Amino acid sequence: MKILVTAKRVEDPESKIKVKADGSGIVQEGLKYKINPFDEIAVEEGLRLAAKHGGEVVVVSIGPKEVQEQLRHALAMGATKAVWVNHGGALDPMSAAGLLKAVLEREKPDLAILGKQSIDDDQNQTGQYLAEWLGWSQATFASKVESLESDAEKAKTPAIHIAADGKSAQVVREVDNGLTTLSVKLPAIVTSDLRLNLPRYASLPGIMKAKNKPIEELTPAALGVDASPQIQVVKLSAPPPRKAGVKVGDVQELFTKLKNEAKVI
Amino acid sequence: MSIVLIVAESQPDGHLRKATLHAIAAGKELAQKTGAPLHLAVLAENPSALAEQLKPYGAVVIHTVASPAFAHYVAESYAPAVAALASSIGADFVGAAATAQGRDLLPRVAARLKAAMASDVLAFSGSGTDVTFTRPMWAGSVIADVKLKTSVKALTIRATEFSAAEPGGGPAEVKAFPAPADVASSPTQFVSFNEVKSARPELTEASIVVSGGRGTKGDFKEIEALADELGAAVGASRAVCDAGWVPNDYQVGQTGKVVAPKLYIAAGISGAIQHLAGMKGSKVIVAINKDPEAPIFQVADYGIVADLFKVLPELRAAIHASKSS
Ligand SMILES: Cc1cc2nc3c(=O)[nH]c(=O)nc-3n(C[C@H](O)[C@H](O)[C@H](O)COP(=O)(O)OP(=O)(O)OC[C@H]3O[C@@H](n4cnc5c(N)ncnc54)[C@H](O)[C@@H]3O)c2cc1C
Ligand SMILES: Nc1ncnc2c1ncn2[C@@H]1O[C@H](COP(=O)(O)O)[C@@H](O)[C@H]1O
Known about the structure:
CATH architecture of chain A: 3-Layer(aba) Sandwich
CATH architecture of the largest domain in chain B: 3-Layer(aba) Sandwich
Bound molecules: flavin-adenine dinucleotide, adenosine monophosphate
Number of strands of chain A: 14
Helix content of chain B: 25-40%
Oligomer: heterodimer
CATH superfamily of chain A: HUPs
Largest interface: A-B, 86 and 91 residues
Distance between the termini of chain B: 61 Å
CATH topology of chain A: Rossmann fold
């Protein structure tokens, strides 16, 4: 089975993001970069599926040369090979999906797992555009019934169930008010939610091995894709601050404030 | 002529999802700014009851699309119908509430329409077709003003930023739109839905939310007891949902639910930016945490540095006593 996963480069979710004074972007100094947390979960699920069913995991990232760090990270986790779409300019979900479509048409995977959302633009769109443009099934927000502290998770069991004939898969999704299960026809696009799995750490031997794994370089031009974004970011700003609150000494004071000052209980 | 089309959403039991009324309010605002009439789309096996219910909310036309394929929501059968309707009426803006369904469906509709999309829209500015959409990025650490360059524009709407539409104005005209053939050829099949049932109010609709974090160590008894005393909903941080202590559906934050109740009580929650992303629009925030340095205190109107297992029962007793006196 061939599984394609993604590794978008984003700011570390722990970093404090500040907007430049002129609103043209965010302050880059001091920021650390990582693989998008949802994409790391996608890589992990791909590895588990490949371990169970046999096959390979191909990881793709679009961006400037720095994204090779995220590709190496996925290779160190265990991915077989990497595809780097060398693209320096701004990207939006439509252009990312356009490029990923061209990569998928070359690689012809049985399943592609993306993150549900990039933690920088928070759009939550790319997988859905991609699925529609390919005419494939989509199962967004993939999760599982068992908790991340369950035995199934400890055993690194994949959450996505591939049917015995290899033609379809069952995916559990996080939706409002519960979990829903879909049967998707393969090949399909799955996007990962937080509770699909706990990604493994890259082991030292894994990191060493990753150094010799291939990274194929492509460009939008080579893929025949116009990647110009259709979203224009006019201005960024900081959210309005909340006014400073107070610390209360005891529960009685808290109760009195809520009742008489805020009048919310 | 330009049209704003809002897609209504029903719950699995067939009732209207309340977030739709907030999306309709946003649609009205957008319609006003752009000078376009507001239309609604109702997709269901039998859409007439829902359409009837939506009639007084200010839309000019409600388009109903009926098909047995809509018995359970799947993007692959809904998207062709919404896109065909949007094209046929010449909609320039296609939107829905930013619920799990809206987030799944709208990008697929946008893809069919070759439309760019803004997710989780907080506000609009501009006029005519030159509209700027305001939306959060980086878990709400940044607010972005964006323009969509495509002629058709798609969006999901953050319900907490628009108050629910009120009935009023002339009744909408209801028109049936025939479901296109491809709604029945979805490559994806619905298998099952495992609903989290709760006697408490819906998290996104409750006027008070009591949330617990890792500080509860999985013991939610006091959180629930206070919630019940207040008639509140129960929420949680990611850490608690990941551990399987409470249903995933309780998660508040960047990737969970966004809530803006009049009172949000956070107990044993540190206040990571991803959690704040889902609750900092609350009117009054109370933080209960043992650690005086916890970042949650930076957004709290009232903070108390103490053990939650001591504070919650005392607070509940005080509220209970005040009710009976
Ligand atoms: C991509 C991504 C998305 C995320 N999305 C979300 C999201 O949607 N929602 C979300 O919540 N998180 C989200 N997170 C996780 C987030 O970063 C934090 O890890 C999480 O919110 C921490 O949960 P917590 O505050 O319960 O736990 P902790 O950070 O461990 O905090 C526990 C707090 O409890 C206090 N405490 C302990 N015992 C007591 C006691 N007895 N009485 C009082 N206080 C006590 C401690 O002082 C501490 O402050 C996301 C993270 C990532 C990377
Ligand atoms: N530059 C990129 N490189 C690789 N994958 C990407 C890129 N941009 C978006 N994606 C994928 O699309 C998902 C959703 O992104 P978004 O729609 O921007 O929230 C991400 O989690 C990735 O899986």
